[in-house]
Automatic annotation (TrEMBL):
Gene Ontology biological process terms from the UniProt entry: thiamine transport
CDD domains the record matches: PBP2_Fbp_like_2
Gene Ontology CC: outer membrane-bounded periplasmic space
Matching Pfam families: SBP_bac_8
GO MF annotations, alphabetized: thiamine binding; thiamine pyrophosphate binding
Lineage per the UniProt record: Bacteria, Thermotogati, Deinococcota, Deinococci, Thermales
Keywords associated with the record: Plasmid, Signal
Protein name: ABC-type Fe3+ transport system, periplasmic component
The keyword Signal is annotated on this UniProt entry: yes
Length: 314
């Protein structure tokens, strides 16, 4: 009876135009976002979630254009550029959501709950095992002649994860590392999904890319492996925040907290991500523990040098 009443109430809200609506701007994989949205809507009948999804660069550009026009739209933002979140926090444009979920690691509730990690992902070296029999062991190994013409990565102007990889490796190995990769034939694809599909088809032998995406391709039968280099996988911050201008801040906060629930954390693991909550199941085939390098976003000068080196449009 309760289920029937919930369905009837949802139909009434929708038919009357009273449905509560959230708008989410994100760089996350759309199929993964949709799975989470549908799980949230099952627990919140009558709620609609409108999603704008693109690469981090395009999401940030859209958000900045709306802010400059004085008409920002999203209730929630979720993408891989922590510096943008820090800037919005300085301008008092994020709503504080108190970190009240029991057991949540407080180091991921940035600035006391202005923005949150809701799951963890790493940039790794993905290997097509049918093309590469002796994989690299460290990030520096990628510049070895044995891997000439085999390696690709996404465009950091489009991919936030790639932007963080460029910043992290430039800081640790120097920008000359990318010059060596260029000389060794490093190719640039627009996005992680495009790159991972080409890697799965054997167009490349190696890729600098996201670990969860590699696991998703492996689940489809691709001959891939996710290699966490000995010097560490690059932890890619991809925070979520409720915006200060949100028309439905309480509902938006509920969605954020839902992503930390056992149900949502299990969904993340099923789709190849490391959950952020302790005790949640790990993704199938993933190491129990990962040596993590803290991700550093490439600054404007480093991104400009990288783009000029590889002839990328900005």
């Amino acid at each position: 009876m309760r289920a029937l009443w919930s369905l009837a109430l949802a139909a009434f809200w929708l038919g009357s135009g009273w449905a509560q609506t959230l708008t989410l701007y994100t760089s996350e994989i759309l199929a993964d976002v949709n799975a989470l949205v549908e799980a949230f809507r099952r627990d919140n009948p009558g709620v609609q979630v409108q999603v704008f999804r693109s690469g981090t660069g395009e999401v940030v550009a859209k958000l900045r254009a709306e802010l400059e026009a004085g008409n920002p739209q999203p209730d929630l933002i979720w993408f891989a550029n922590p510096e943008v979140f820090a800037d919005l926090a300085r301008r008092n444009l994020l709503r504080r959501v108190p970190p009240t979920v029991q057991g949540y690691p407080l180091r991921y509730a940035y600035q006391g709950g202005l923005y949150y990690e809701v799951r963890l992902l790493y940039n790794v070296v993905a290997v097509n095992t049918s093309r590469v029999s002796t994989p690299p062991q460290t990030w520096a190994d990628l510049a070895k002649p044995a891997y000439r013409g085999l390696l690709a990565m996404p465009d950091p102007n489009f991919s936030g994860a790639a932007l963080i990889t460029v910043g992290t490796l430039a800081q640790r190995l120097g920008f000359a590392f990318f010059e060596r990769l260029k000389a060794n034939g490093l190719a640039i694809e627009q996005s992680n999904p495009v790159l991972q599909q080409k890697l799965a088809r054997g167009e490349y032998g190696l890729a600098i890319t996201t670990d969860f995406g590699v696991r998703q391709e492996i689940a489809k039968g691709a001959p891939l492996a996710a290699l966490y280099p000995r010097d560490g996988g690059i932890l890619v911050p991809t925070p979520m925040a409720v915006t200060a201008w949100s028309k439905n801040p309480e509902l938006a906060s509920r969605f954020l907290r839902f992503l930390l629930s056992p149900q949502a954390q299990a969904l993340f693991a099923e789709r190849g991500y490391y959950p952020v909550m302790p005790g949640a199941p790990k993704p199938k085939g993933a190491p129990e523990q990962v040596l993590a390098l803290g991700g550093v976003t490439a600054d404007e000068g480093t991104l400009r040098r990288f783009s000029e080196l590889f002839g990328l449009r900005r």
